[in-house]
Amino acid sequence: MERKILKSSATGDSCIYVKHPSGLDIYICEMNGYSSVEALFGTKYGSINTTFKTKEDNDYTTVPEGIAHFLEHKLFENEDCDVFQLYAATGANANAFTSFDKTCYLFSCSANYEESLKILLDFVQKPYFTEASVAKEQGIIGQEIKMCNDNPEWRVFFNLLRGMYHNHPVKIDIAGTVESIAEIDADLLYKCYNTFYNLNNMVLSIAGNISADKVLKICDECLKPCEDKGLETVSPDEPAEIVMAEIHETQPVGTPIFNIGCKCAPCDGAERLKKVVCATLAAEIISDVSSDLYQRLLRNELINSTFGTEVFCGDGYFSVIFSGESSDPERVRSELFAELKKICSDGIPEKDFQRIKKTVYGNLVRELNNVEAVANLMINAAMSDAEPFDMMDILSETTNAESLEFIRNELVEERFVMSVVEGAEK
Questions:
Q1: Half-sphere exposure of 261 (CA within 13 A, CB side)
Q2: 420 CB-side CA count, 13 A
Q3: Cβ contacts of residue 341 below 8 Å, gap of 6+?
Q4: Which of 305, 122, 290 is nearest to 218 (CA)?
């Protein structure tokens, strides 16, 4: 069993990494003095992974959109009882989520973490699907999809992605469509489960008031060794150009809501992590509450406190998104473009860069004192083929020139899309 300590050269914080004989990557952070525990058991399987093969397959398999999310729902039912009933007996709060590139099952508790961990490791390794239960779930998830379609924040975001991406499945709703989930059956669920829920494709992350030795003992008892199937996933070719520059939709909202996003070049591994840091600093420099742009927009009553930014990226996609509410989203966009031109021409004042860098760094340090944040940090890093403290170390070395280069090379007007959801005209 491979075991090593992963440590931040910047802060001295550390966690334990174990490559378990079963094939599972395990990350453990013992946080003495804390009262709670957070654990996540996840697989590198999300909504974008619709085409795949293993070394046992002759050709690629393409499955219906939304099947990763559907599978997440179904795993909580086993042959004997509902998994939430088991957690109720230990006092843990349990949940799960499917994103674009991963599915995670989690619990948080302040006592009995050993029993809750056994439940987590057990039910995720015990799929149970029948045609009757699949048919029932199709109705439930169908209603969930319709509810999301009535959610303005959900619509403005996915409209943005559809304006950016021609072919990449990131533009498809994580839950799929009513039509696509109608194609799902028990055999397809088992196919996807047996492909992606292989321990060589999974990560366990646990942090808080725990003992690493106890966690590993439970893992030894509960984990079933898996052969690495040589999983390959593919995405269609995606051009650099956007699909359309502007999308509007009508929903019952008081003030229009907007997403203004820039489609950037995708990348992987260490290169992606460096780019995330540069993009995060660039976005904050442009739109932080103390920035010229933010103050100007606020004075002119073009934004409110909902205005913010996000770096949104994964396998085959990367974007920087500015979002909020505004009575005039077009004016917000024109002001944003004017600010970008000014920065490209004049550069970033060093004092502003250092202030933003210290703020971002401080936010990362603060998260290291939060059990839930640490558990998520470890699993998110592992899913991105990075180590938990890499971002902090990269941030400490990132320069003003690198952030400016990102703005000049990536945040160009022709790659921007604006998505607006607004109320019907009276």
A1: 30
A2: 19
A3: none
A4: 122
For residue 51, give both structure tokens. Answer: 């085409």
pLDDT band at residue 356 under the 50/70/90 scheme: very high
- Global pTM exceeds 0.85: yes
Strand, helix or coil for residue 198: coil
358, 178 in Cβ contact below 8 A?
A: no
In angstroms, how far is CA 319 from the centroid of its own chain?
A: 13
Four-CA torsion 331, 336, 342, 345, nearest 10 degrees: -130
What lies within 8 Å, CB to CB, of 59 at 6+ separation is 53
Residues annotated as catalytic are: 72
What DSSP state is assigned to residue 384?
Answer: T
Which of 204, 245, 274 lies closest to 28, judged by CA? Answer: 204
**Beta partners for residue 61, in sequence order:** 52
**How many H helices and E strands in the chain?**
15, 15
| Distance in angstroms (rounded) separating the CA atoms of residues 296 and 334 | 12
How far is C-alpha 297 from the chain's CA centre?
29
Q: Are 131 and 186 in contact (CB under 8 A)?
A: yes
Average pLDDT score over residue span 144-158: 92
3-state helix vs strand vs coil in the chain, percent to 5:
45, 20, 35
Amino acid at 299: R
pLDDT > 90 fraction of the chain, expressed in percent and rounded: 89
Q: Quote the CA–CA distance of 311 and 303 in Å, as a whole number.
A: 20
